[in-house]
Amino acid sequence: MRHIFIINPAAGNGKFQNDISNAIHEQLKGKEIEYEVYFSKFKGDIQGYLNNKCMERISSVIYACGGDGTLHEVINAACRFRHVSIGVIPCGSGNDFIKNFENSDNFNKIESQIQGESVDLDLIKVNDKYAASVCNIGLDADAASNMHKFKKIPFISGTSRYFLSVFYCLVNKLGKALEVTIDSKTKLNGLYLLGVIANGHSYGGGYKCAPLAVINDGIMDLCFVENISRFKIINIIGSYKEGKHLENPRINKYITYNKCRHVLIKSNEPLNVCIDGEIYNYNEVELSVENKSLNFWLPKGTQVQGIENKEILA
């Protein structure tokens, strides 16, 4: 088994990448373990590098050492190769994907990673891309898209840029006119503040948008919030972050939550679509669950989280 570590030097402001590289060499150098460490050079570089590696047809584990965006790049480059498993060593700003696991500290332990095993997880196909965790549209996707407007402001971190971008979006027009078809039978038609279609339960650095989602149950979770006033947005944000919005009677009347396998979203104007933190632009978005299509490398001692309360708010 070959172990390939893809390190994104830009993830998480580059704070931990050298530590990860040093830990890999300290743990594995001199042992009978075939491994490689590769620092990505630019956006899109991972695709070409991994395509060449995967075409060698050597059984491999490829570790995305970065944030959710790095994992997104690795999955879209390598998930079609069945002789490859994909793992993650989190060093991004959000690291939401690993929140779907118990004992997630093991993701940062090289020894636990090497002693891991491959398990089957779901993916979401979003047009021609794949999402490991969450696809979202609306207010939060627009905020992520507009972060570049504040990049040149000195002494402003990524988190601060995001909050500035949220404020920028809040003072502009809110709500997207959408037609949403769920499993070819349920149809939503109206103005929506935001919407998520989720495989995992969290995004945005810890917002538990789909609290009933499980990453290996063969089902997507859909959560759409109606276009509410700015005052109501302030009132719901805490519950939405904690994943309590489905049980809060002041909030859930504005929410549609469904378990589903296929979703088609249509808009009369281009939408910012955020897939695992990466921004794309579409007028029409087709999403489907790809059951057990990801060979995921699970560190020793780590388990996929289950959901005790499976009641669904329709």
Question: Any overview of this molecule?
Answer:
- This protein is of the alpha+beta class and 314 residues long.
- The chain is built from seven helices and 15 strands.
- It has helices at residues 17-28, 45-54, 68-78, 110-114, 139-145, 158-170, 230-242, and strands at 2-7, 34-39, 60-66, 84-90, 101-102, 117-126, 129-131, 134-138, 176-182, 186-198, 220-226, 255-260, 262-275, 278-298, 303-304.
- The strands form three sheets. Strands 6, 7, 8, 9, 10, 11, 12, 13 and 14 form a nine-stranded antiparallel beta sheet that branches. A four-stranded parallel beta sheet has the order 2-1-3-4, sandwiched between helices.
- A hairpin with a 3-residue loop joins strand 9 (176-182) and strand 10 (186-198).
- Helix 5 packs across helix 6 (158-170).
Keywords:
alpha+beta, 7 helices, disordered C terminus, 314 residues
